[in-house]
Q: What sequence folds into this?
């Protein structure tokens, strides 16, 4: 029996993220092209009409800088744009404006959790460029044609390139997920993977543990977490198989087939590109003033991993709740808004409500915390009412539904519907007496020693109070009355 | 006044006649159109004549006159090089690939002129994509020099130079990447002004070499150049390389002599290959400058000899990228192919002329992996040295004066077989583009009946200073008053 050689994958990611600016990278056309009829978000600049010139979108530049700062990259005091020359029908100018040897950010890292470990993946660079148009191959009137839609051409794109690292497919996936979360936290990307607003190219090579990395293969255009992990798993298997059988791994670019979950070699006709980069003469070099950088640095919010840790340690949330509530910045802000506004309720109980009923109701209504009608102080008020024993949990759930429907404050719903919990002993006494009188058989059974029927009597009492009676008080009074005759 | 009188008006005189209501813009425009109709068959200065647009603009200009909203340029008929984007008007760049291309927008420079009431007569002939020094690289045929129709007018703004020289337009716009305004101005006997890089917005100027291209006027007098620049110049938010510096009144800077002015004459600009007649005319011109009170001193611009070869690395590199968009997909010529790349290839094969192809190949080569450092990077370093030459020179002199071109107009076909010989036509103009400086070429005399040009070069943004000096020279010498004789034309009136 021969032991199979185990190779170690060395993985690098190039992540392209569209920036969530209003206009395109170098012109005033709207950057949001979803649903727009083809070639309607275009102008002489993004169509590359003769004589048109690019003008840098300062918001896109800020987004790039904020990201680079958040990834601990060094910001070059001066950087520049370059022309990346290659021909494709969806590249309107025959070159893409990108950044070659002086990107806005160099170096850096991102910390992320994978399983129960916190890992750090080094970043090589962060740069800005413009997206391309989209080609569509179809047939019109029985004729094979290629169509091009330039709505996407010129949409601001940020490329984040990692250093190669010995990482597993699951770790690569977790990194991609963490990076997406950071970009969404920063407000620079909408995280919409299906629509391609974030996509990854992955480089992978194999090596013997401690050895030199072998031939690098690039897998292009992965746009889901699953695809990142599965494509890597597949590619590691494929390359291991080749090496074990004494074959060579070809340096090539492969695509990921979502349907059959395999990587496929792309046209070998496509010889090595020589992009003939040179400085973009239409754009003067970028100089970033220190005070601008300071301002941007101050605008960076607490990032998801730091928040997750704080939710766990400082706010004492369960790991699951901390995870769910820190994942989305708006949700986390909403939750913390409620925690701050609460007078009596603990962060933990607010987290319970948030992860349970609040998220469920939002989901049912296809809303998010920022589109829904309910505000953080309203949630705080509701949980406070529960915490102080003024309403029961079932009454609170009922109240919450009304809050989602009307946006009305918890207290006014409670009062209007008479849901306030009855803790007044006299009122509970009369309620209990009524229940005892109405259920002689159950009372006899209890007194005969089967004391667990008290739960049924309890249920009857709660029902009679329409949920408003304080269960503890009801139980105490019931016990007193049943044992005292 | 006869059509010929009207045809040779200056902007300034045309303005006076218009404002005194001696002539209307419509009359002036009709006269110019008649003149074009009469003589342009011999010169081919125009690719497109926009008679309807011109008359419409002339009517609008006459209204501006009546309403008192006129400017120095209102109602004056002019022409624009066919590389400036004009909304709704074919803009060919002298190329088959854009033969039927109609832009959706106007260049900032032409838009500003239109707002000032300029009357566009048409679009002028040029070397394809401004690549050439003789105007023989136009897909629409060469332009002929009115001083001798067997000779070239210079290039690439040859059509604009001849439109002015032959009395077809009062002034014309050109573009200057390596001398394309000044060299044809010199060879055709008119004034040609290349402002500081970034002084006039390049938005809508179809790019040849973006770091060098600049728009400027070709006129009959220095005053006219000053007036046209005043309207076109200034920051444009659509061009990130346009300069954010106030635009002075250039016309008010004119007047006075040159007493106390230190003028440097670079010894490298009297190199081998310079025609004797040109040198003589320039020496005489320098003496005239001395008579005006200027202190003439010899200076050195030591890296001059490297400027031309450096230019032929940098400009083709940029051109290679700038011309990549002509692929037959979105506009212009489109020749069907089996797939996208076949379409690109066929379109470009039949759309571009030989000089354009040569420069695309050159540009591709100098940027290729493995050659970048040896060519492109080195060229950028030399460019810095050339710029520093000028900076150092301007520590000791106010302006530099030099011949615009080593020769007078050469014969059609004389240099077409020898690109390197052709490139030498720009040896005195290219370094100024490399340094991004303003320079004006003015008529400075004649050699064997052909015009010679003298250029005044200044530090960045010192347009007023060079205009003042050139104006003093022009007023003292009056070379600009001489017109090409009608006898030079093939017999037209039979």
A:
């Amino acid at each position: 029996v021969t032991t199979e050689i185990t190779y170690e994958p060395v993985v690098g990611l190039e992540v392209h993220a569209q920036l969530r600016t209003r206009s395109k990278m170098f012109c005033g056309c709207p950057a949001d092209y979803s649903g727009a009829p083809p070639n309607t978000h275009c102008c002489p600049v993004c169509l590359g009409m003769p004589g048109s010139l690019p003008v840098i979108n300062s918001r896109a530049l800020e987004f790039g800088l904020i990201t680079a700062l958040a990834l601990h990259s060094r910001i070059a005091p001066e950087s520049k744009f370059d022309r990346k020359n290659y021909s494709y029908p969806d590249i309107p100018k025959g070159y893409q404006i990108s950044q070659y040897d002086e990107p806005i950010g160099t170096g850096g890292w991102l910390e992320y959790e994978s399983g129960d470990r916190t890992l750090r993946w080094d970043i090589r660079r962060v740069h800005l460029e413009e997206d391309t148009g989209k080609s569509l191959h179809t047939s019109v009137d029985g004729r094979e044609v290629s169509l091009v839609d330039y709505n996407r051409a010129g949409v601001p794109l940020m490329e984040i390139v990692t250093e190669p690292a010995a990482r597993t497919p699951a770790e690569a996936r977790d990194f991609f997920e963490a990076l997406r979360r950071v970009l969404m936290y920063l407000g620079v990307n909408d995280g919409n993977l299906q629509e391609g607003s974030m996509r990854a190219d992955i480089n992978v090579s194999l090596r013997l543990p401690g050895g030199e990395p072998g031939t690098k293969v690039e897998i292009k255009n992965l746009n889901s977490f699953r695809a990142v992990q599965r494509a890597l798993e597949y590619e590691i298997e494929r390359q291991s198989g080749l090496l074990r059988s004494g074959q060579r791994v070809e340096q090539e670019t492969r695509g990921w087939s979502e349907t059959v979950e395999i990587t496929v070699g792309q046209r070998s006709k496509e010889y090595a590109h020589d992009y003939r980069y040179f400085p973009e003469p239409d754009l003067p070099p970028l100089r970033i003033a220190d005070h601008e950088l300071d301002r941007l640095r101050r605008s960076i919010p607490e990032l998801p991993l730091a928040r997750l840790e704080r939710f766990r340690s400082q706010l004492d949330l369960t790991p699951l709740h901390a995870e769910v509530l820190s994942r989305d910045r708006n949700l986390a802000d909403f939750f913390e808004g409620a925690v701050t506004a609460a007078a009596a309720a603990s962060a933990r109980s607010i987290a319970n409500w948030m992860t349970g009923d609040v998220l469920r109701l939002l989901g049912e209504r296809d809303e998010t915390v920022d589109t829904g009608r309910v505000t953080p102080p309203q949630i705080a008020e509701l949980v406070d009412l529960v915490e102080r024993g003024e309403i029961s949990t079932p009454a609170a759930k009922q109240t919450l539904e009304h809050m989602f429907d009307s946006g009305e404050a918890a207290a006014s719903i409670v009062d209007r519907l008479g849901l306030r919990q009855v803790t007044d002993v006299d009122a509970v006494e009369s309620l209990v007496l009524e229940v005892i009188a109405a259920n002689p058989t159950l009372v006899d059974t209890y007194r005969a020693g089967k004391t667990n029927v008290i739960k049924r009597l309890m249920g009857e009492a709660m029902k009679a109070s329409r949920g408003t009676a304080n269960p503890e008080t009801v139980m105490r009074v019931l016990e007193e009355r049943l044992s005292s005759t | 006044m006869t059509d010929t009188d009207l045809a040779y008006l200056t902007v300034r005189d045309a303005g006076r006649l218009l404002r005194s209501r001696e002539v209307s813009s419509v009359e002036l425009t009709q006269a110019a159109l008649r003149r074009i109709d009469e003589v342009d068959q011999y010169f081919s200065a125009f690719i497109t004549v926009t008679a309807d647009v011109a008359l419409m603009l002339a009517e609008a200009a006459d209204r501006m006159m009546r309403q008192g909203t006129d400017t120095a340029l209102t109602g004056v008929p002019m022409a624009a090089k066919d590389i400036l984007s004009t909304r709704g008007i074919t803009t060919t760049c002298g190329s088959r690939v854009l033969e039927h291309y109609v832009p959706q927008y106007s260049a900032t420079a032409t838009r500003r002129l239109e707002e000032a009431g300029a009357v566009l007569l048409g679009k002028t002939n040029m070397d394809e994509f401004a690549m050439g020094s003789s105007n023989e690289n136009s897909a629409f045929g060469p332009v002929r020099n009115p001083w001798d129709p067997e000779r070239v007018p210079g290039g690439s703004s040859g059509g604009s130079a001849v439109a002015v020289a032959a009395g077809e337009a009062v002034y014309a716009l050109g573009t200057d990447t390596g001398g394309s305004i000044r060299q044809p101005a010199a060879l055709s006997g008119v004034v040609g002004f290349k402002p500081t890089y970034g002084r006039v917005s390049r938005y809508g100027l179809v790019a040849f070499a973006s770091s060098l291209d600049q728009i400027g006027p070709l006129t009959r007098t220095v005053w006219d150049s000053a007036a046209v620049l005043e309207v076109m110049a200034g920051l444009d938010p659509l061009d990130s390389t346009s300069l954010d510096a106030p635009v002075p009144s250039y016309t008010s800077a004119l007047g006075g002599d040159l007493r106390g002015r230190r003028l440097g004459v670079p010894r490298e600009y009297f190199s081998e290959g310079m025609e004797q007649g040109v040198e003589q005319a320039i020496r005489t011109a320098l003496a005239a400058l001395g008579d005006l009170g200027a202190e003439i001193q010899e200076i050195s611009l030591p890296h001059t000899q490297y400027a031309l070869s450096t230019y032929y690395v940098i400009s083709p590199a940029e051109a290679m990228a700038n011309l990549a968009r002509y692929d037959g997909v979105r506009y212009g010529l489109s020749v069907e192919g089996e797939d996208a790349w076949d379409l690109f290839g066929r379109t470009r094969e039949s759309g571009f002329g030989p000089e354009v192809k040569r420069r695309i190949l050159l540009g591709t080569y100098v940027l290729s992996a493995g050659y970048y450092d040896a060519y492109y990077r080195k060229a950028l370093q030399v460019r810095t040295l050339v710029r520093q030459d000028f900076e150092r020179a301007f520590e000791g002199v106010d302006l530099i004066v030099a011949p615009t071109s080593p020769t007078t107009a050469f014969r059609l076909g004389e240099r077409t077989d020898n690109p390197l010989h052709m490139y030498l036509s720009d040896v005195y103009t290219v370094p100024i583009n490399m340094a991004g400086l303003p320079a004006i070429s003015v008529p400075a005399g004649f050699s064997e009946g052909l015009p010679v040009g003298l250029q005044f070069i200044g530090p960045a943004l010192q347009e007023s200073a060079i205009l003042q000096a050139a104006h003093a020279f022009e007023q003292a010498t009056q070379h600009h008053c001489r017109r090409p004789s009608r006898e030079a034309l093939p017999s037209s009136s039979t």
